[in-house]
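Researcher: Go.
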Amino acid sequence: MKVQETKHPTIVHILNFVRAVEPRDDSIDMFATFVNEAREVLERKLPATFLFQHDALSDERFAAFLREKLVPSGHVEAGVWLEFTRSLIEEAGLEWRGRYSWDWECHVGFTIGYTLEERKRIIDTFMKKFRAVTGRDAKTVGSWFMDAQSLAYLHEKHNVVASCNCRDQWGTDGYSMWGGYWNQAYYPSRVNAFMPAQTRENQIDVPVFRMLGSDPIYQYEAPLGDNGQGVVTLEPAFAEGGGDPEWVRWFFRQMTEHPALSFAYAQAGQENSFGWERIGNGYLDQMKFLDEQWRASNLRLETMSQTGEWFRGKYPLTPAAATVALEDWRRKDRTSIWYNSRFYRANLYTEGTTWRLRDVHLFDEGYSERYLDAASPSPSCLYDTLPVMDGFLWSAGRERAGIYPGDKAGALLPMTGKPTVAQIDENTLRVSALLADGGSLVTTFHETEIEFSVVGRANWRLAFRRPDAPTNLRIEEHAIHYVHENRAYSARFDGAELYSCESGVVVVPAGAVAVRLGFQREGRDVV
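Model: Structure:
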């Protein structure tokens, strides 16, 4: 199959979302931080998006700067940051249940804490306020997470063309977003705002961009602490990540130098709640770097609505996308290759001589989110997809869950050197890894399935290791059957026989044909 040599676009959103209060630290000057962020993009004339919380729109200092400086610039877009505040809830004629004038807990600060009619009422109130302050309608609305009914309402009644939500994380700030489209953007299911849809009729026609620029090697298995997972992202507030100029340049090299299929994407910028003292140096460095790269035509700086309209015009369905990191900034000889389509996501990870498919999640547009029809009483939340392999949640201590290559005796097959990655066509990514004792392991990510083959070697296996996986998995013929949150689905290995073992499942090729891992959405819930 011919390798397609195409140069993908690299699209960056400078996106700052703006609050007026920070109850966790009242020493932070929220207005001064916002002004410093805004002045940098205004002076450099950079395309940027500022999303405003209702309390900031209600504060005349913020509103005046927005009207007099941002709106007239012509290159800065204003939109809505959809977290709920006392000012918004009371303006909508409802009772505020929060601890502070802005409360980040899920049942008071986000759409999921309210009934469907309350969500619509609050959204209408917010959009009316935005128009009153800016003289125009908001085209973009972002939030850490948002239910599908609210997102569809924003599109269908208020003509929103683009949205954004939080990167994958486990437990951080009480928000777990796990197993989603790793980066870039997707069209969500009408019953689950976190789940990519497979069909036009069941998708919300608003692209949702994943925020914060996760480190493709280290964020996925960042260890848990007192506040969920640690953070390794493009955010300038974090010294190991966006606050480190060397890391920032490494991050953008991975985006631009390796295949991305449809397009590469990152969200730069920062919420003003961290304060200028913490984010200033990293933010200024990033804006200078992005300015240089943009003017050299190495990337596209756009407002979120510009990219949303481009995406909707180019892609009627969610396109395949890849995020590839073949250089390790920690110099520990690790690589990470993320593949996403509207059907599934997967991550191939190498460390030294060890090859591991450490993550596979199935996308099912019929899997409803927990918050679709009723208000949640919980201060935390969980949005997820359907796990086939989960190298973070299913690992136990030093024993890491994953799909590993092995020989007929059960020993792992070591690789040598770094894998090579090639784009075959607009939906297909091929990864080749030389094996230390001869031959090569070739993994091809197709839009609906993953293909494994070993060239120049016989008697190989795939070891499906899941030391701490849920117990409700069973093998039947060529398939592993799952039930997750009462949703039934399966992973089928064509061209192989499956055998149970103490550590999980052994996948034995049936002859010289390639092994193909496909997925079946059974379209039913198990009670």
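Model: The longest helix spans residues 276-295.
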